[in-house]
């Protein structure tokens, strides 16, 4: 089968489009014939080597997220059967052969049903972004219905799903994006208001959009740029969850002291397995019940994974990036 495989750590050029042996599922494992695979920033960090959360043995097929059809099940698998439409979210799986490939084998526990109403490219947008959004909102921030959530950088894969999940449980949601296209996507996801974070003074609109009630929870996608600003309209006892960061900053802890605010780190890799499984069950339910409709951005052919790795770091997020592997 065709796959993207790396035999060394380094830049995008280490991602090679090659023929590899088709994997075979063992006990409690599932093989999925993939139509699309998700591309995540974390996969570029893993590719470079030295990533704190995960460093694979080489050669290695990247990829944790994908969607397709169950091709074969191993002994002991009863929840899934060949022909089932599914999405794969294998970042915490005991075994995965990587989703940048025509087929993937992984633990049955990280493979979930994909409703007919959700396309395969949408299904590939769910794994890492969906579990990150769910964990940030419900395990770290413990968002409650009626609270106001500010998603600082809402036009990417995590942000768009977070908008939908927060709205689904009854929160008011304000998102930001840096382009007109991104703003439209955040509106499409259901945000109550969208601000352009490329404009000076964009935070000044928060009082009017919250009826002067302020912000209860902030999901922060670029903490090194925005963390200090996040405190401007954060309510007393508010919570800031750091989902993304690309550098250091000069920070005065009195900002947190004055509001008794919580600054919470978040990484999918740290999730206890019961909370990770809960997030996947919750995502599956939201898909079935209309609470989630993933928004896909750029689509690259599998053989162009190198280009995708450059774009996902250097480009501005506009929906979830995926790799097209097989026709439906």
UniProtKB/TrEMBL annotation:
Keywords: NADP
SMART domains in alphabetical order: PKS_ER (SM00829)
Location of the Enoyl reductase (ER) domain: 10-323
Ranges in a coiled coil: none
UniProt keyword Amino-acid biosynthesis present: no
Gene3D superfamilies with a match to the protein in the record: Medium-chain alcohol dehydrogenases, catalytic domain (3.90.180.10), NAD(P)-binding Rossmann-like Domain (3.40.50.720)
Superkingdom, natural source: Bacteria
Any one Pfam family match given in the protein's UniProt record, by short name: ADH_N
CDD domains in UniProt: zeta_crystallin
InterPro entries (UniProt xref): ADH-like_C (IPR013149), ADH-like_N (IPR013154), ER (IPR020843), GroES-like_sf (IPR011032), NAD(P)-bd_dom_sf (IPR036291), Zinc-ADH_QOR/CCCR (IPR051603)
Keyword match NADP: yes
PANTHER family assigned: QUINONE OXIDOREDUCTASE (PTHR44154:SF1)
Name of the protein: NADPH:quinone reductase
């Amino acid at each position: 089968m065709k796959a993207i495989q790396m035999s060394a750590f380094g830049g995008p050029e280490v991602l090679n489009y090659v023929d590899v042996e088709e994997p075979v599922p063992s006990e409690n494992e599932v093989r999925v014939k993939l139509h699309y695979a998700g591309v995540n920033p974390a996969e570029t960090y893993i590719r470079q080597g030295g990533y704190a959360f995960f460093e694979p043995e080489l050669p290695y097929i990247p990829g944790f997220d994908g969607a397709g059809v169950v091709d074969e099940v191993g002994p002991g698998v009863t929840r899934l059967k060949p022909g089932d439409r599914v999405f794969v979210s294998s970042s915490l799986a005991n075994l995965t052969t990587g989703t940048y490939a025509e087929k993937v084998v992984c633990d049955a526990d990280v493979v979930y049903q994909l409703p007919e109403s959700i396309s395969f490219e949408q299904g590939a947008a769910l794994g890492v972004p969906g579990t990150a959004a769910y964990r940030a909102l419900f395990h770290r921030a413990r968002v409650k219905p009626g609270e106001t959530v500010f998603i600082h950088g809402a036009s990417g894969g995590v942000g768009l799903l977070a908008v939908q999940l927060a709205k689904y449980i009854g929160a008011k949601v304000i998102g930001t994006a840096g382009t007109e296209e991104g703003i439209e996507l955040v509106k499409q996801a259901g945000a109550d208001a969208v601000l352009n974070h490329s404009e000076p003074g964009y935070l000044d609109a928060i009082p009017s959009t919250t009826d002067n009630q302020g912000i209860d929870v902030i999901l922060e996608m670029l903490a090194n740029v925005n963390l200090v600003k996040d405190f401007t309209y954060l309510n007393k006892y508010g919570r800031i969850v750091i989902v993304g960061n690309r550098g250091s900053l000069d920070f005065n802890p009195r900002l947190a002291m004055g509001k008794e605010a919580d600054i919470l780190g978040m990484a999918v890799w740290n999730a206890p397995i019961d909370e990770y499984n809960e997030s996947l069950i919750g995502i599956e339910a939201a898909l079935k019940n209309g609470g989630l409709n993933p928004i896909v951005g750029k689509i690259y052919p599998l053989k162009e994974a190198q280009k995708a790795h450059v774009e996902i770091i250097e480009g501005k997020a506009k929906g979830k990036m995926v790799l097209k592997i097989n026709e439906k």
